[in-house]
Amino acid sequence: MDIGLLLVAVCSISSSAVLVRYAAASSVALAFWRCLGGSLILSVGAVRSGTSMVSLGTSAHLIVVAGIALGLHFATWLASLEMTSTAASVTLVSTAPIFVVLGNRLMGRRSTRQMVIAVGVAVSGAFVVTGGDLITDLGSFEGDLMALAGAVFMAVYLIVGQHLRTRIGTAGYAAAVYAVAALTMLPIAVVGDIALVGFDRTTWLAIAAMILGPQLGGHTVLNLLLGRIGSVLVSLSLLAEPIVASLATWMIFDEVPPATAWWGSPIVLVGLAMAVRASRDDRGERPAPVGP
Which residues have CB under 8 Å from 36's CB, separation 6+? Predict the structure, then answer.
């Protein structure tokens, strides 16, 4: 059941690579509307469940932390794509699972040896997929730091989310976090003079599809799974996004994936399989999550 949902989430998130081709808007604007739209839709379920920032009590400040981390992840990683090479940006942001393992350890939760090995294998595969250009194709030191910051912020978002999902339902949690993330990106858009409105019909349709697919079917399902399979496995599943996205663009736009994708993708998948097995051995130690 959980693995099936994980596959749905990865495929949904990967669809953004196709949808962004039809959107004549800044990546920051797309991220803003994805988060805001997802929050508005999920707020209906949150209200029905009686969830509000007031009712969350002591958890409210952690939700703010998770939301700001998600917003800053989008902001820093998207900025890195404009400051450094795509290969370096994608490679560095794919190190998020390493920071998840380190962050969990700082919080007193150690990953099993099998899970650490799985992380190493999967991240190594991600490095191969990007062509191993981290050293030879660096664009700028500042851009590389921004991509690395994007990985750290994603790790914070997932670690805090795993903790909160044992106490808060998915709809209430995701609605609040997405709202904070959108508010975090709003001043970034204002300072950067990034248009958030005035798009054509095709772009708005693409944004609507991103809300329903990558945001609700992708990130929200991952939030559902955070309390079940943990932040490490969820972060590793994101490494499959470039693989699925490459296959989708190949089928739709006839863009053949680079040769390195054929070598690195199997390594990523092997790492994910190892992580799934390790998570099953470790599941008994994890608190049961609150229902959806």
Answer: 178, 179, 182
